[in-house]
Sequence to fold (610 residues):
Amino acid sequence: MPSTQAYLMLAATLFTVGLIGVVVRRNMITVLMCIELMLNAVNLNLVAFSSRLSSLEGQIFSVFIITIAAGEAAVGLAIIIQLYRIRATVNIDEVRELHG
Amino acid sequence: MSWNDVVVLLPEIILTIGASLLLLGPFFTGRPKRSTSMSLHPVEEPAAAANTGASAKWWTLALLAITAISVVVCSSLAEGMTLSASFSQMFALDAFSIFFKLLFVAAMAMVVLLSDDFLRESRYSTWEYYSLLGFALCGMMFMASGVHLIAIWVGLELMSLSSYILAGYYKNEEKSTEAAMKYFILGAVSSAILLYGLSLIYGVCASLNLLDIAKVMSTLTTNNALMFGIMLLGAGLCFKVGAVPFHVWTPDVYVGAPTPITAFLSTGSKAAAFAVFARVFYVALPSFHLDWSNVLAVVAALSMIVGNLAAITQTNIKRMLAYSSIGHAGYILLGIIAMSSTGLRGILIYTVVYVFANLGIWATVLMMRRHEYAGELIDDFDGLHKRAPFWAFAMVMFLLSLGGIPPTAGFIGKYYLFAAAIQAGYGWLAIIAVLMSAVSIFYYFRVVVAMYLRDGQDAEVANSTSLQLVGGIALAVTLIFGILPAPLISQVEQSSQWVATRAAELHGGR
Fold:
């Protein structure tokens, strides 16, 4: 079985990939996926710590995160669909009614 | 789970059930089946919509009143209980949380009153709107009460998800939808960053309970993973309060969102974020005060400077208030950096003062609004003293309060915060704060100049009863606490006691 450290490295990598994706990618669906990637990196972190510390709290937390991430994705997709209806684009750069 | 737990949680239970029932409102008021939320085109019967809108408002206000009463009743019932009685130390109904809960309910009731006319004109469905406000309030109450990171985070997300939807509530307007999109993406990223921080803190401290974390931390010396975790946690919270490196969403979202929602975001939502900020940093992290206070001091200084300087050039009042709220976040951060009982009192007082002064300003801004006319520019205030002398005067008082000029309550709040900063050895920060307050008075007075010295259109202001009620309450609070601050100060001393002693134990009794 891999060490806790290996899991933490994987989680850190996933988190970084997600963060870079949010900053670099212009498609809102991709950005949403990158956010999910970041949240799942956190889940991995929590579960790895939880098994190492033999405490259940981390696993419970990750279940909460999974649940709320689903709600977040629902809200995010609803907003993206509405924006697509108005602007016919899901590209962040083309949505700049509000300057700033 | 025992009956004690139910008592402690009763206000939230009532609020959740009530907010869910609000969703069923259209079925009970005999609306036509066609739901506005499902169709792309808003209903074409303004009279019917106005009727249900009014009853939705009354039901929501009744729900808020019941919630406030239950907070007071439950707190007296729970008085004898120890903290451990509530959901194995996840949830506390202490004086600190009761103070914030009552503030949230009051702010939310005022937001409901502000929304009334706005919704009636907009023809969007009202029940879902009020229900979402109810859920947001529930999240805020969880944030104020949580002493466990899971409870705090779930409350934070409940509030945030509701406010993403509310920011985009005018779904056929591009500005509103764009604001919701920006708010959502940045909010979700900041939430993920905050969570990563929490996971690292959990890994080091082996617990998510604030008290246990504090105990473990007092035995640790420096630890890189922990420092990184605290930094990420601070970054996530700074996003929620809109402090500087994480402030970019504030102006766009404030301008794009429907004005009553902007009022909610800049008052209730911000106050809740500061409740969490104070609770987490005072209860869990006092042992590492030296490590995080300097970073936070830079954040506070930048917030004050960038927020206030950027506000000078704005012509849209919503945008100006957005930048000024960034500056105010900087002031309140002084109380967290100071890590003393004075600082904590300053946070509580300033939150109350800021919430009421801001709600008063938003009420006045909404009075400028009529059909097909946003009334959001500073120029729209031209000559207000002739059109509505009382509200021009009220607006001056609110602006003075935000600027911190003595006859108003803002002075007391700033006095406590700046004094705390100086006591804690952050004199330079207090100097920046005072200088930036002076700058803020400069741009607040642009509005005053417009109201009193310029001749404007002679359009009537849209003076509805609910807007007048909000403005009147806000003015009363701003002036009464400015002239007679003693009741507020003694209340705040009681409310902050538990958190302050907890911090002092671990921090060396400052």
